[in-house]
Amino acid sequence: MTKVIHVHLIYEKKNYYFGSISAIFDILNEEEVGITKNSLLHAGMSDGSCKVTKRAMIIQSHLIRSSK
């Protein structure tokens, strides 16, 4: 399964999708996300987990693909 991390910026009403936590911070800065890269890496996120900050919702899940 392919991991996907959905970042919803609350005030900007924008959605981003990333393949890793590190990739988030290639596009967005810590102020936009409301958490540092190091804190998010150590948050222990697993499939289906959600981390909410004052600025964003960060949800980790996986892509569902057709078996055909």
In short:
The protein is α+β, with helices and mostly antiparallel strands.
Note down, in words, how this protein is organized.
There is one protein chain. This protein has 68 residues and is of the alpha+beta class. A 4-stranded antiparallel β-sheet has the order 2-1-4-3, covered by helices on one side. The chain has helices spanning 21-27, 30-33, 37-41; strands spanning 3-9, 14-18, 50-52, 56-62.
- pLDDT under 50 segments (min length 5)? none
Q: Helical region count?
A: 3
Helix content: 10-25%
What class do helices, strands and sheet pairing give?
alpha+beta
Rounded Rg: 12 Å
Q: pLDDT average, as an integer?
A: 94
Total strands: the figure is 4
Task: Give the overall shape.
Answer: globular
Report how far the terminal alpha carbons are from each other: 15 Å
As a percent range, the share of strand residues is 25-35%
Furnish the topology, listing elements before pairings.
Blueprint: E1 3-9, E2 14-18, H1 21-27, H2 30-33, H3 37-41, E3 50-52, E4 56-62
Antiparallel strand pairs: 1-2, 1-4, 3-4
Descriptive labels:
four-stranded antiparallel sheet; globular; alpha+beta; 68 residues
